[in-house]
What does this fold into?
Amino acid sequence: MFESIQPWIGMATIVLVIALLVYCVILHIRLGSLKKKYDFFMQGDNGASLERKLSVEVSEIRDAAKGLETMLTEQAAIRNIQSNTIQKIGFIKYNAFENIGNDLSFALTLLDGNNNGICISSIYGRNESRIFSKPIVKGKSLVSLSQEELESLNEALGERTNEEALTSAIVSK
It folds into this structure.
């Protein structure tokens, strides 16, 4: 009974050894391919390792992040300063007195980003000229404004006056 099984065991062993030998050759080829790739990544142009390259890149990214943080901080500071600078201007020239030719009187409104500022008006007459200044807080005057000063304030705030609305309506027709 064992005599018929023994030749098969020998054949099976030989086939198994050949299969394992082929598998070892395939693994050796794959290992050689991986070793070539590993050597390629670990040797740079000047022989630097991948670790060194990565550490340099990481430090550059950290430096860039610090620079970005600094830039954002400075941008916030600039925005705070900018909100306190003159950004909006309204200017109206007019004739204060009928007997004087040309529009020699004016109202000038200067506002910052928070709509705080000043309205300066000059009234020109033949014998004298007067200049007035009135504070503007959050887009509103603390004292009463003349019609021209109010128009100048509205222009600085970007609001259209009734006269401008009528003029643009006539032009569009």
